[in-house]
Write a structure and sequence with these properties.
Blueprint lengths: L8 E6 L23 H10 L5 E6 L4 H12 L6 E5 L4 H9 L8 E6 L7 H12 L4 E7 L4 E4 L5 E5 L5 E3 L3 E4 H10 L7 H7 L4 E5 L10 H13 L19 E19 L2 E9 L7 H13 L5 H5 L11 H14 L2 E11 L9 H11 L4 E7 L5 H4 L3 E12 L1
Parallel strand pairs: 1-2, 1-4, 2-3, 5-10, 13-14
Antiparallel strand pairs: 4-9, 5-8, 5-9, 6-7, 11-12, 11-15, 13-15
The structure holds cytidine-5'-triphosphate and ligand LQXTBERG.
Pfam family, one: IspD
EC number: 2.7.7.60, 4.6.1.12
Family: Belongs to the IspD/TarI cytidylyltransferase family. IspD subfamily.
């Protein structure tokens, strides 16, 4: 079996904006462009570029739609897609996307879904410039209009020398460590990522942008994009070829885990922190729900169990939370040619009470598994057994994996 090499480039596609200037009746990325959404079209361009992990950042409630679009656009590369929920500002959405990067990624491109017609060559130019040693690279176009500085009353105050100006586009590319550190220390909200790293003291260089990479911001922009797509559908980037027919059947797996109360700090369970609740003890954070899921997935894929890959002899997993466990498990599955179908997990515990946070837990666990469906249920045991005596928590998971 030929395995897709693990990419060292990631593209974070920010698509969580509301599109107030477009007024398209839906968040901008989910407005129709041709038969599909603006996001779908953007992702066709992304997948036609260099091989990369693709993290799609979307508004809360649109994760499922985004996953459908992304899987369709990705074709055979569907296992490279992760969908996460964005934030109130573009910068927060970028930070949410960065938090989902795989460990091997060292070059990060941040791309606006709204720049739906960006040619793959722009992605290639940006990656090449980062590979050549730049900390930060942005595509730009020269400013063609005469530019004036005006006051609040609309009076011209001064002319501006346009030869000093450039219009910034996306994808903007960075060494991962540079962008992560700059976002972590950012004191202000910026409209692009280059400004975030420049504020942290880094040099940003430019490569040639492309007129086709214009941002769909207003209704006339959308009309222009629709006209371009309609006039030249054959110019559409081709999606990756469909995967070869699978010769392996889907497989199910089962996993259980138990942790006793008595750990230090706050409780972590099902990928969530539970302030005020007693912590579970364990080598990591004692998250029995996440560990049961890991066991179920590894069993389904025939890859052993949690002890095979996350034993107590692995110091890097001491104290880490569900996302790290699940992301690493996803990698192991992917490298073995499997994708996650779905996961169902039941937690048995008197506390914490899951009802109010069940959906939140499902969302966090699903995001950590690249958007795969995760169902969480919770029950008590009528006072029987160790969970009934509130001595600890048990979790039982089943998982379906399918050939990637
Ligand atoms: N909280 C936000 C805001 C913006 N974006 C993304 O950032 C890109 C550029 O932003 P912009 O064009 O300003 O999009 P919107 O914020 O959606 O538009 P508007 O400012 O008109 O509301 C878009 O792809 C948008 O989806 C995002 O992911 N999260
Ligand atoms: C990132 C960007 O697309 C670069 O031109 C831009 O800054 C997005 O934000 P804006 O507020 O729509 O300019």
């Amino acid at each position: 079996m030929t395995l897709t090499p693990v990419p060292r480039v990631a593209v974070v596609v920010v698509a969580a904006g509301s599109g107030t200037r477009l007024r398209g009746g839906a968040p901008k990325a989910f407005v129709g462009l041709d038969a599909r959404s603006i996001l779908h079209r953007s992702l066709l361009g992304v997948f036609a570029g260099p091989s990369a992990q693709v993290v799609v950042v979307v508004p809360e409630g649109y994760e499922g739609d985004a996953l459908t679009d992304a899987r369709d656009a990705a074709g055979a590369a569907a296992d490279l897609v992760t969908v996460v929920t964005g934030g109130a500002t573009r910068q927060e959405s970028v930070a949410a996307g960065i938090s989902a990067l795989w460990a091997d990624v060292d070059v990060v491109l941040v791309h606006d879904a709204a720049r739906a017609l960006t040619p793959p060559e722009v992605f290639e130019r940006v990656v090449a410039a980062v590979d050549a040693g730049a900390d930060a690279v942005i595509p730009t176009l020269p400013v063609v209009d005469t530019i004036k500085r005006v006051d609040d009353a609309g009076r011209v105050v001064a002319g501006v020398d346009r030869s000093e100006l450039a219009a910034a586009q996306t994808p903007q590319g960075f060494r991962r460590a540079v962008l992560e550190a700059a976002l972590a220390e950012a004191a202000a909200d910026h409209t692009d990522d280059a400004a975030v790293v420049a504020a942290a003291g880094h040099t940003v260089i430019t490569v040639a942008g492309d007129a086709a990479a214009f941002k769909i911001t207003t209704a006339p922009d959308l009309e222009r994009a629709r006209a371009i797509v309609q006039a030249a559908p054959e110019a559409s980037p081709a999606p990756a070829p469909a995967p070869a027919p699978a010769h392996r059947a889907p497989r199910v797996g089962i996993g259980t885990d138990v942790h006793g109360f008595g750990g230090e700090g706050t409780l972590w369970l099902a990928g969530l922190e539970w302030p005020g609740e007693q912590a579970l003890s364990g080598h990591s954070d004692g998250d029995a729900v996440a560990h049961a899921i890991v066991d179920a997935l590894l069993a389904a894929a025939g890859l052993g169990d949690i002890g095979t890959h996350f034993g107590t002899d692995r110091p890097e997993f001491a104290g880490v939370h569900a996302e790290a466990f699940l992301a690493h498990t996803l990698r192991l599955l992917r490298e073995a040619g499997w994708a996650v179908g779905n996961v169902s997990v039941q937690v048995q515990a008197n506390r914490p009470r899951f009802a109010a946070r069940r959906v939140e837990a499902e969302r966090v666990l699903s995001a950590a598994l690249g958007g795969a469906a995760v169902s969480v249920s919770a029950t008590t045991t009528d006072g029987l057994g160790f969970t009934g005596r509130s001595e600890g928590v048990a979790a039982f998971a089943t998982a379906l994996v399918v050939p990637a």
